[in-house]
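Example for tutorial group B:
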C-alpha cells in the first residue's frame, strides 16, 4: 500500500514533540539513584512587563553530587521545543555547577545527566506559563502611603509564587492573580517622585525519581515592571 508523504508528515508531527509542548505535564524520569541533583531553569524578562515568551532569557543551573562530591565530568543537557542545550561545568567563584542559557522561554524542559555508570534521564517539568502585570500599569504613579493592589494575568496556577518591591524581600503568596502589597513596600521621597520596581516570580517543581534523596528540579518565571511613587510630604 502506498503512503503519501503528506500523510506521513502529519503522523510524524502528531507523534513527535508533543512531550515538549506546554501542558504536556511532568515526568520524574529514571536513573541510577546515585546522583543528588539540584536543577534550576530560570526565565527572566528582558523588558518591563514582558508579555511573550520571546521577551525572556532562560538560564540553566544544575548541581550534581555523588556521595557528597561534585560531579564534574559527563554530559548534562536541557531539551525544549527550541532544541538541546549542552551545559558546561563552571568552576568560577567556586560555583561548581553545570550552566547554560538560551534565548526565549519554552515552558517545558527535559533534563538528562550521564556520568560514567551514573545517570538521571528524562526528567521533565512543565513550567509556569508567562505572566504579566495588569494593574497598576507600568509607569503609573501610585500612593506609597496606601496599600497597593497588584494584579497579574496567567493561565494556570503555579506551585508557588512570590512578590517583591523595593522595600521588601520576596513575599510568598498564592498564585491567585492578585495581592495587596502592604504600606511601606515602596520607597518614596518628600518632594519628588521615586521609581520602584515590582517583581513577581512563579515556580513549578518536581522531585526526580532515579535521583538521590533531596533532589529537585525547578522552573522559575520572573517578570518585573516599574511604577512611580508620588511625593510623600509626611517624610
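The residue assignment follows.
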Amino acid at each position: 500500500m502506498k503512503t503519501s508523504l503528506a500523510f506521513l508528515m502529519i503522523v510524524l508531527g502528531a507523534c513527535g514533540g508533543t512531550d515538549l509542548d506546554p501542558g504536556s505535564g511532568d515526568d520524574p524520569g529514571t536513573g541510577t539513584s546515585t546522583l543528588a541533583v539540584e536543577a534550576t531553569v530560570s526565565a527572566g524578562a528582558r523588558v518591563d512587563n514582558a508579555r511573550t515568551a520571546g521577551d525572556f532569557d532562560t538560564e540553566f543551573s544544575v548541581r550534581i553530587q555523588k556521595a557528597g562530591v561534585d560531579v564534574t565530568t559527563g554530559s548534562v543537557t536541557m531539551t525544549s521545543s527550541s532544541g538541546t542545550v549542552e551545559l558546561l561545568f563552571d568552576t568560577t567563584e567556586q560555583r561548581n555547577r553545570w550552566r547554560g542559557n538560551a534565548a526565549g522561554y519554552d515552558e517545558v524542559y527535559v533534563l538528562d545527566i550521564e556520568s560514567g555508570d551514573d545517570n538521571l534521564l528524562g526528567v521533565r517539568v512543565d513550567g509556569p506559563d508567562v505572566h504579566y502585570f495588569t494593574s497598576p500599569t507600568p509607569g503609573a504613579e501610585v500612593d506609597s502611603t496606601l496599600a497597593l493592589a497588584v494584579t497579574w494575568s496567567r493561565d494556570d496556577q503555579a506551585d508557588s509564587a512570590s512578590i517583591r518591591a523595593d522595600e521588601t524581600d520576596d513575599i510568598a503568596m498564592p498564585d491567585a492573580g492578585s495581592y495587596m502589597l502592604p504600606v511601606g513596600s515602596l520607597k518614596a521621597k518628600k518632594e519628588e517622585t521615586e521609581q520602584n520596581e515590582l517583581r513577581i516570580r512563579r515556580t513549578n517543581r518536581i522531585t526526580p525519581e532515579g535521583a538521590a534523596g533531596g533532589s529537585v528540579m525547578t522552573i522559575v518565571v520572573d517578570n518585573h515592571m516599574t511604577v512611580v511613587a508620588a511625593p510623600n510630604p509626611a517624610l
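The helical segments are 5-15. Compare this with the pattern of hydrophobic and polar residues in the output above.
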